[in-house]
Amino acid sequence: MARAETEFSHVNVAVLWGVLSSPPRSRELPSGATLTLLEVTTRLADGGVTVPVVVADAGRDVAALAAGDAVVVVGRVVRRYFRVGGATQSRTEVVAERVAPATRRQAVERALKRAAVLLGAARVGVG
User: Fold this and answer.
1) pTM as predicted
2) For the chain, does the N or the C end have fewer beta carbons within 10 angstroms?
């Protein structure tokens, strides 16, 4: 293992602040768990980017969101592989740990503090 790799912890933290480009869609899995699918669009100087977000067993706050609502999402980036028509395909998405309506200041602060905790846990003394 290279020296640089041993000095740093690896971390996968995604923070999105954007607008829902479509209403949340829920899907029940055979296990009984419910997934809520969100499309969050972020705006940058060079245009917008839409990011698929998956929330496991989302609460009422997430289900009550509508297209056009501003949200803050804290989670991790994953790439899922699946087979369709005999071919392997993939999808990159954010698996949300927290979703907060941007209008709820305390919920946004809690979400951002959670992201800071995750990033701080990966910090290693480098000297």
Assistant:
1) 0.81
2) C
| Cα–Cα distance, 54 to 99 (Å, whole number) | 10
Closest CA to 35 of 57, 5, 61, 9: 57
Is residue 51 a contact partner of residue 40, using CB atoms and an 8 Å limit? yes
Label residue 1 by pLDDT band (50, 70, 90).
very low
Domain ranges for the chain: 12-121
Sole residue written with tokens 């009550």: 64
The CATH classification number of 12-121 equals: 2.40.50.140
SS3 20: strand
**Digit-coded pLDDT (tens) for 12-32:** 999 999 999 999 999 888 888
d(CA 102, CA 127): 38
